[in-house]
Amino acid sequence: MTDYEKNNRDDMSDAIIKKHITWSMGAGFIPVPFADMIAVSAVQLDMIRQLSKVFGIDFKQTEGKAIISALTSSGVARLGARAVKFIPGVGSILGGVTMSVLSGASTYALGEVFKKHFATGGTFLDFDTERLKRYYNEKFEKGKEVAEQMQEAQDTPVAGNPTIDAIDKIKELAEMKNAGILTEDEFASMKKKILEDEF
Hints:
By secondary structure, the chain is mainly alpha-helical. It contains 8 helices and no strands. The radius of gyration is 17 Å and the shape is globular. Mean pLDDT is 79; it is low at 76-96 and 156-161.
């Protein structure tokens, strides 16, 4: 492989990871308990599928789900953030913000793990979860910084306006539905919940 091909592959991988971090962070704001977890997992699986294509690896959905579960299972903090959503009032706002960053961090870390594994000639069949979990944990910490920076970059003078926030959340859900990450029913249910909370 030439340096040009390697750099092009790296650029494509980074773009895929960044796009899926954004989607994960949007899913982290979904105000339906546990729906966020399902949506984020679907986004992460889609990211792995796209990375597989870039590296010419045969995508294995079942193995991909198992690896995501094994690597992210240590994220006790994510469970804490989800639990905060059950606190009336502040819980859904505080939990959403926390879950959004943690979802983005987890997606960043997973993306970096798979990018490294595939770049060194690895496949789904020789994925050493225990060895790569350390790398995932390192990248998760870095991912929190990346997600926070992306969140700050997206803030605008109109951020915090509930109506605009609701529209943005619905747009993100629509993107996930169009990408095949959410079903029509999941999209309708989550959109309804956002509109009920807003109006």
